[in-house]
Known about the structure:
The chain is an alpha/beta fold. The strands form two sheets. An eight-stranded parallel sheet has the order 1-9-8-6-5-4-3-2. About 45% of the residues lie in helices and about 15% in strands. The protein has a domain at about 5-195: Aldolase class I (TIM Barrel), CATH 3.20.20. Helix 3 runs parallel beside helix 4.
Amino acid sequence: MNSICDMLGIKYPIFQGAMAWVSNHAIAAAVSKAGGLGIIAAGNAPADWLREEIRACKKVTDKPFGVNVMLLSPHADEVAKVVAEEGVKVVTTGAGNPGKYMELWKSKGIKVIPVVPSVAIAKRMEKEGADAIVAEGCESGGHIGELTTMALIPQVVDAVSIPVIAAGGIADGRGFAAAMMLGAQAVQIGTRFLVAEECTVHEAYKEKVLKATDIDTVVTGRSTGHPVRVFKNQMTRTFMKLEKEGTDLNKLEELGAGGLYRAVIEGDVMNGSVMAGQIAGLVKKRQPAEEIIEELMKELKEITLQRTHYINENM
Ligand code: TUI
């Protein structure tokens, strides 16, 4: 047990990344049942969808699970209320400052864990009452900041006194161990759970991850102020051409809007936004969520023992 596991009542320090349209109750419940922290992503979905997903998750498992509130969502206010009403134990937030919901959530005893891309935002979140911080490097899929996980984690760990969870570029025991060495108390993993058997993302999306190489993702939208890491495809080629030509920001946003739904639900991996992290090239097999979690813990343990052995023998 470490302090994050104690704080949240989970067995293993592994969060399942909240992926909009992807992370529903099916994957969240599977991860929580296996001892990690499953997280339902509210994304841009309406509050009623979230309410149903929370109730469905509770039917499958009595283990703790979380909800992620995507703060750019037009439904964020109602979603924040549903989280408080439905007795969710843990909230993570993304793509903004959750300050205005903090009082409501804290009054219900909810643990609040904002996802942040920089030291300054991490410090502000701690001051505003966050219980822990997910520090997310730009290796991650989706909406990202500027810093890599390697540079971000130790700087955030030194800047705050609450626990730090590392995210971005982690998919196996090696990344897990490295994150712990940087001072993180847990990891958040998204891309690898895309190919979990319980994950309901479209088959074409799963195939895209399984066939990926190291250089298959790209960041679009730096000029719009919403940088997003996605797989290169026809959509990104068009987007980047228009971005280079200085196309009107609203037109670019329009092109991106709806793209994630097209990829996740309809399986249009040519013209949709196929968000995934740089570590996709490492993800080669479909597995049940429980097997992924057991394998991560086994690898973490083996690596830690190997290093201890090396130190005892050589130093
Ligand atoms: O939120 C994410 N990743 C996401 S959200 C998402 S859905 C979406 N789709 C299209 C456009 C935009 C979003 C897909 N992936 N990760 C966590 C994250 N949070 N990354 C960066 C931030 C962040 C940025 C600024 C957190 C706080 C912040 O603060 C700004 C402020 O106002 O203080």
